[in-house]
Amino acid sequence: MENRDFIKFLGTAGARFVVAKQLRSSAGIFIKMKGKNIILDPGPGTLVKCAKSKPKIDVTKLDGIILTHAHIDHSADLNILIDAMTNGGLKKQGILFAPNESVNGENAVVFKYLRDFLQKIIILEANKEYNLGELTFSTSIKHQHPVETYGIIFNLNGRKISFMVDTKYFPGLIENYKDSDILVINVVRFTPNKSYDIMHLSIEDVKKILSKMKPNKVILTHFGMTMLKAKPWELAKKLSIELGINIIAASDGMTIEL
Question: Residue 153 domain-assigned?
Answer without folding.
Answer: yes
